[in-house]
Amino acid sequence: MLRGIHVPLVTPFTSSGEVAxxxxxxxxxxxxxxxxxxxxxLGTTAEVAALDPAERALxxxxxxxxxxxxxxxxxxxxxxxxxxxxxAALRELPGGxxxxxxxxxxxxxPGERGVIAxxxxxxxxxxxxxxxxxxxYRTGQAVGAATLRALGEHPNIAxxxxxxxxxxxxxxxxxGDLPDGFEVVGGDxxxxxxxxxLGASGGILASAHxxxxxxxxxxxxxxxxxxxxxxxxxxxxxxxxHALFAEPNPTVIKGVLHARGLIPTPDVRLPLLPxxxxxxxxxxxxxxxxxx
Length: 292
Ligand SMILES: O=C(O)C1=N[C@H](C(=O)O)C[C@H](O)C1
Known about the structure:
This protein is of the alpha/beta class. The chain has a single domain, classed as TIM Barrel (Alpha-Beta Barrel). Helices cover 45% and strands 13% of the residues. The protein has helices at 21-33, 53-70, 83-91, 111-125, 136-139, 145-152, 169-175, 192-198, 212-223, 227-244, 251-259, 277-288; strands spanning 4-8, 38-41, 73-77, 99-103, 130-134, 157-162, 183-186, 202-204. β2 (38-41), α2 (53-70) and β3 form a beta-alpha-beta unit. α6 (145-152) runs parallel beside α7 (169-175). It is globular, with a radius of gyration of 18 Å. The mean pLDDT is 97. Residues 8, 40, 43-45, 187, 189, 204-206, 249 line the site of the ligand O=C(O)C1=N[C@H](C(=O)O)C[C@H](O)C1. Pfam families: DHDPS. Pathway: Amino-acid biosynthesis; L-lysine biosynthesis via DAP pathway; (S)-tetrahydrodipicolinate from L-aspartate: step 3/4. Homotetramer; dimer of dimers.
């Protein structure tokens, strides 16, 4: 279900500060037409915390339409650190949404037993399969391989977006012994190639807004065991991701998309500030000439 590249869409804004719905639609269609297996709406990259409920609904409706036209998976980010309200948000997801990306409860640090109880309750409540978003440097909560494996046994938990900031012992342990039907997708752009080499099935990668086809090719090459293609391509794309994340995500990516005429402004909402011109031009240059 989670195989391939899933692009967590940025939210483009007009020059008067509204969500640019036509640009969302165009960008969403382009990502899928370039080979992405699916889209993620309302991820961190979408600046979801800065969108009001009507804007969130607009983004979801637009993505539902684009994904339905192309029979692609739409995953929607549903974030909260309270089980009851997160369950309610899951129950309210509209038709056409295929999965929900749910962050490990952040800031509270409920412990791994709390994390298990949280996701089991959500999995029971959710009308769609869950993808756990494990990103300890943002949530502050450790989750080991044994906990993820236990959660992976639940029939309504499809996988984990794995973003631990590197390859560690838990990464090796988890990918060495995955429950049936439970998939790992890379969520740390710069580490996706080694994760794919270890058996991840794809990635949810903001970097895939740029060079979408190359990220798709990277997944395909690792899945086919074509190391001669995958290894150098992975190194090249890691350099691109490094440049795209030189300043807080998604500021540089929005700058590059705007420079390429794909979104009407590079604008982000506070507390994010626009990327510097130097970071944007460097990332654009590295995407075209990865040796730079
Ligand atoms: O929104 C997402 O999904 C992603 N967020 C990560 C982040 O901002 O740290 C990056 C990843 O590429 C996808």
